[in-house]
User: Which sequence fits this backbone?
């Protein structure tokens, strides 16, 4: 998803560039060399007895590239072990210890590990798992207690350890390493000594998740991204702050689960926040080939653990029964450069939430809306929105009936949009839906509705949502035969959203105001009070003018009509 624009876009330009660039192929290159740093990298992906760790090899190989090019560390100072056995891991560790002893405290060590971690059965110890290790055999792993002791005893100027692993017994997809370990275990946090800091991808019994779209572990991706953005010239304290913030936010949105990177520092490392990765910022960038090929991951292989949901025992029309779970969040097709859609299952009904990347847009009577624009759509004005989700379709009758236990609609059909619902009815529906799912659904604001209808940051400037030809995207009085139609039977708009023009009007959250303000607004919520609530989109009974993306209408919150329904919105939980 893209970043905001403006002069304020001038100062945000770097954010836009880095958000769009690929950390695997656009590498900051330092023209100075660091001859006093040595690096050990271990990346374990293809396990003999356990599930693979998706993207672990890409994590390690790309980190190696950054050490060499962005931090300016000579290649001969870097040891990389991919899919390492226990003997491999111990052998590379001994190499690093020997080097530090030879430099007698004048050198710095960086250790990076990506792969499975595991706790002991009693949670008193933690281990790094080699590719020939078994999660139920503690002796087959490398003890973090002994590892930290050996690293802390090295005579190094500074020792930095990055661990893209968790020690709860969970795989990267959140499931457990061994079938006999059914729950996550909080492994004891091992102390560190010497001039050493350990930065781990997750805390306690959390999972260290992947970032499928980016083909990396979530922790590693933001580690690399910030190294890229700062050209390597970043303090460890600033790097930790950024990675913790971004991993925490992204994991909630992507996985609906927390992931909290943690730092453990020795008592003698009081100034570790000021340690700088590269003394000089890289002055140029180089485009390189990916270090590893794109990994093909099926959408169902990396989903968040589902939370059981109880819902009213009401028979509904559903195209295919599914196991009652919610919220079930699927991951995206990695061939598509977009944020993942969110699929929610309630009872036997599934619906999809589409991510909308925030940004700046002009709301109201823009030129493509033509002379049909009313005074209530004026003046056109700039609005800035944060990221949010909006439903792929209008709320269907099968979803409403599953949640509420009744169906108020005039036209009956499971995949027809629910209608004859007031704004107040919608609030009751949303309250019950949130109780079932544990989420925070709501109605979209007018600004969110219009931005999504226009296609968000993918907008092509259409008059209707997805086209200038209304019959391609909308059911209205010219083609509806005076009734509603099943959702998703017309073409979607630029974001993959259906029926934002036509079919049924959709309630918005805002109190209605008859004209807009001219000043730039950020996340406008509408007036604090009023008589009418806003509605948008036109419907099956209305003409083409009413289906334009900027058109506005309103009614009292208690009003019901067989032309009026709703669509859900959701804010990222950050």
Assistant:
């Amino acid at each position: 998803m893209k970043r905001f624009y403006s002069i304020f876009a001038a100062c945000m330009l770097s954010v836009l560039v880095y958000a769009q660039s690929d950390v695997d192929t656009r590498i900051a290159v330092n023209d100075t060399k660091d001859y006093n740093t040595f690096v050990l990298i271990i990346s374990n992906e293809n396990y003999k007895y356990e599930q693979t760790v998706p993207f672990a090899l890409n994590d390690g190989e790309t980190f190696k590239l950054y050490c060499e090019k962005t931090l300016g560390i000579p290649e001969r100072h870097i040891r990389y072990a991919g899919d390492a056995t226990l003997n491999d891991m111990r052998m590379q560790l001994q190499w690093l210890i020997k080097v530090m002893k030879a430099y007698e405290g004048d050198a710095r060590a960086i250790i990076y590990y990506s792969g499975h971690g595991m706790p002991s059965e009693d949670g008193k110890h933690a281990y790094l798992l080699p590719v020939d290790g078994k999660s139920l055999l503690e002796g087959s792993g490398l003890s973090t207690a002994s590892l930290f002791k050996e690293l802390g005893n090295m005579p190094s100027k500074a020792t930095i350890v990055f661990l893209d692993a968790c020690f709860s017994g969970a795989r990267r997809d959140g499931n457990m390493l061994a079938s006999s370990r059914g729950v996550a275990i909080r492994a004891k946090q091992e102390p560190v000594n010497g001039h050493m800091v350990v930065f781990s991808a997750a805390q306690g019994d959390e999972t260290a998740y992947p970032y499928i779209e980016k083909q990396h572990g979530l922790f590693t991706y933001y580690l690399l991204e910030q190294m890229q953005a700062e050209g390597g010239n970043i303090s460890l304290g600033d790097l930790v702050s950024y990675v913790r913030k971004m991993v925490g936010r992204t994991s909630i949105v992507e996985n609906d689960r927390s992931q909290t990177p943690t730092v453990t520092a020795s008592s003698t490392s009081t100034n570790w926040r000021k340690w700088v990765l590269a003394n000089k910022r890289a002055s140029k960038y180089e485009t390189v080939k990916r270090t590893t090929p794109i990994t093909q991951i099926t959408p169902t292989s990396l989903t968040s653990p589902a939370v059981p949901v109880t819902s009213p025992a009401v028979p509904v029309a559903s195209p295919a029964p599914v196991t009652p779970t919610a919220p079930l969040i699927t991951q995206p097709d990695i061939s598509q450069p977009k944020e993942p859609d969110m699929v929610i299952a309630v009872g036997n009904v599934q619906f999809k939430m589409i991510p909308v990347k925030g940004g700046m847009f002009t709301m109201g009577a823009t030129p493509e809306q033509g002379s049909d624009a009313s005074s209530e759509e004026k003046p056109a004005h700039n609005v800035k929105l944060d990221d949010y989700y909006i439903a792929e379709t209008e709320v269907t009758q099968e979803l409403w009936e599953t949640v509420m236990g009744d169906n108020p609609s005039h036209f009956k059909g499971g995949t027809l949009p629910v209608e004859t619902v007031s704004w107040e009815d919608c609030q009751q529906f949303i309250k019950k839906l949130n109780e079932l799912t544990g989420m925070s659904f709501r109605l979209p604001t007018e600004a969110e509705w219009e931005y999504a209808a226009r296609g968000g940051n993918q907008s092509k400037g259409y008059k209707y949502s997805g086209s200038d030809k209304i019959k391609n995207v909308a059911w209205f009085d010219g083609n509806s035969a005076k009734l509603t139609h099943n959702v998703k039977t017309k073409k979607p708009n630029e974001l993959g959203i259906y029926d934002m023009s036509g079919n049924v009007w959709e309630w918005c959250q805002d109190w209605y105001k008859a004209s807009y303000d001219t000043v730039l607004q950020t996340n406008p919520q509408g007036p604090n009070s009023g008589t009418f609530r806003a509605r948008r989109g036109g419907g099956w009974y209305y003409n083409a003018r009413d289906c334009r993306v900027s058109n506005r209408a309103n009614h009292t919150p208690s009003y019901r009509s067989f032309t009026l329904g709703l669509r859900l919105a959701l804010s990222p939980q950050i």
